[in-house]
Amino acid sequence: MTILSTLQRAFEQKNALKVISGLHNFDRDNVAAVVKAAEIGGATFVDIAADADLIRMAKQLTQLPICVSAVEPEKFVMAVAAGADMIEIGNFDSFYAQGRRFEAPEVLELTQSTRALLPNVLLSVTVPHILALDEQVALAEALVNAGADIIQTEGGTSAAPVSPGVLGLIEKAAPTLAAAHEISHAVDVPVLCASGISSATAPLAIASGAAGVGVGSAINKLDNELAMIAAVRAIVESMHTSQVRV
């Protein structure tokens, strides 16, 4: 399947940025602010909840590709009909606090079911960070064989940073960075490094093998649109201009 041209270029240049409003975020004003900030700040695409009204609103606000996240394949059919450009099985972080786990067999089954319903839509799938690293790699390989076009990593909720400042940001990003490193060496599709990523760690994600990053709470939790725009721009600039030194 051909990746949308703007995404393909960004993935090839290893500077794709997905701004995530939140799988459970149905606050119209907040989603609108996130979408507008993503466009103005220079993001590559946006990721919103599977809601037809939100999708139609986002299509009016931005020319960026719109990704819709869900964990129920049937919702994707509605989302694509409403105008979604691509779909994402994942952004599991919001479920963990509820005690909801996603194991490898379920994620693979969701991918297979989604592909059966929508064989030609660009599909991203998150690999749960609750799996051991070798299990994450094995699942990523199986997901690609099942039709995933993009693999997304996560891990911010499992991190327990103890240091302040930049060191703490690196500690928070460590699980998803490790997953991106291992998975990117095992699959031949773009890997998007998400969960716990900031402007300080986005370049580290690229150095770890990711083709781009996904950022959610670092942007959608801010209390005004100007701050959101500034946060998006900072991440974009960090990937475009930073030379990683390790």
Automatic annotation (TrEMBL):
InterPro entries, per the entry: Aldolase_TIM, Uncharacterised_Ycf23
Domain of life: Bacteria
One Pfam family per UniProt: DUF561
The name this protein goes by in its record: DUF561 domain-containing protein
Organism from which the protein derives: Romeriopsis navalis LEGE 11480
